[in-house]
Write a sequence for this structure.
């Protein structure tokens, strides 16, 4: 057939093709559909093993509870029991009398074996001449009143400014006595620095977080908002290197869950760094073979963390960690428009991730409770 005749028949061929395809649809094609609303159920038929309860009791090392200092905690404990969460670590202890109120309420209800509280510090007044000494005193007070660790929020390396309006770098030398005191007291520092790197990249069709940035435009960052991603991450690593006697828990896999090769290099370089996977399980669930190899290699330094407390969302974490299921959905599409795959960790590694590694860092936890449940 000549090219002229083919050109003549091409539109007719396309019309026939589309009429056949559309004729097979049970409903008309919605031509107004967009990326945000396109989320069809999968037609893939594979074995499914949903998990609403962890196989072994676990410690959630990254949780936020704002009202542990008041009221009856039995309802929260019942939710924890339904998930097999033996210990909840509340990173939002605030410090001072607010923290004492939390630990007193927990103790009054006989729940010291179920709740652990981390303290927080205020770095906004870092310019004051006695800031370092007073902050160290607060740490000592908080530990004496039940604090088991220190949580550093991302705002403390991104949004907080000194008296001159300059961003306070998280590796500011005036903070060194704080990190050193944590090492001396034997308490870990769980630190969150920066956000996903994609927040610093152009908000265009090549950005995997495009939908999230559209729905949450305030999360968009840039080189001067407040600094380049690489710089903020480097400041965090500087602390780890400078204070080898202090144990640090790098929140959210240090934002390298999508680059386990780089994270492996950091694990080798920074032996005092543990990691937890709060809010990044979707990154691990799309690379099950690489993730499993990583978990096997660093099984003694990975902790279970969730971050935002929503009981229904834990099921995805359990399923990724425990099963070898294929192609199942994540619970927040704007975090991950892809599907999850199970890593299928061994029972030995699961126990380490779920509680044994946490018990090393939080020795006051009653280890017998885990043995009995196992």
């Amino acid at each position: 057939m000549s090219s002229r005749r083919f050109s003549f028949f091409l539109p007719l061929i396309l019309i026939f093709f589309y009429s056949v395809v559309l004729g097979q649809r049970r409903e008309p094609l919605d031509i107004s559909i967009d990326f945000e609303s396109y989320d069809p159920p999968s037609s893939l038929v594979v074995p499914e093993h949903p998990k609403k309860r962890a196989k072994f009791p676990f410690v959630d090392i990254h949780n936020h509870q704002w009202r542990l200092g008041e009221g009856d905690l039995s309802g929260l404990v019942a939710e924890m029991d339904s998930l097999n969460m033996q210990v909840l670590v509340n990173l939002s202890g605030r410090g001072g009398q607010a923290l004492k109120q939390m630990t007193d309420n927990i103790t009054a209800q006989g729940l010291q074996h179920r709740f652990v509280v981390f303290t927080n510090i205020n770095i906004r007044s870092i310019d004051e001449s006695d800031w370092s000494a007073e902050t160290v005193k607060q740490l000592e007070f908080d530990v004496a009143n039940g604090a088991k660790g220190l949580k550093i929020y991302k705002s403390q390396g991104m949004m907080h400014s000194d008296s001159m309006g300059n961003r306070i770098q998280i590796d500011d030398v005036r903070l060194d006595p704080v990190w050193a005191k944590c090492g001396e007291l034997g308490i870990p520092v769980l630190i969150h620095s920066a956000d996903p790197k994609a927040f610093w990249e152009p908000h265009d069709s090549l950005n995997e977080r495009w939908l999230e940035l559209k729905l949450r435009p305030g999360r968009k960052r840039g080189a001067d908002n407040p600094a380049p991603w690489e710089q903020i991450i480097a400041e965090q690593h500087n602390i780890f290197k400078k204070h080898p006697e202090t144990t640090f828990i790098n929140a959210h896999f240090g934002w390298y869950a999508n680059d386990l090769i780089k994270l492996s290099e950091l694990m080798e370089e920074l032996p005092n760094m543990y990691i937890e996977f709060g809010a990044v399980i979707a990154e691990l669930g799309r690379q099950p073979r690489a993730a499993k190899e990583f978990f096997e290699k660093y099984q003694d330094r990975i902790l279970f963390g969730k971050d935002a407390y929503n009981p229904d969302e834990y099921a995805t974490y359990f399923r990724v960690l425990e099963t070898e299921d294929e192609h199942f959905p994540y619970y927040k599409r704007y975090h991950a428009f892809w599907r999850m795959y199970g890593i299928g960790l061994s029972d030995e590694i699961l126990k380490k991730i779920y509680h044994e590694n946490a018990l090393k860092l939080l020795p006051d936890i009653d280890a017998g409770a885990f043995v009995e449940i196992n």
User: Anything to note?
Assistant: The longest strand covers residues 58-63.
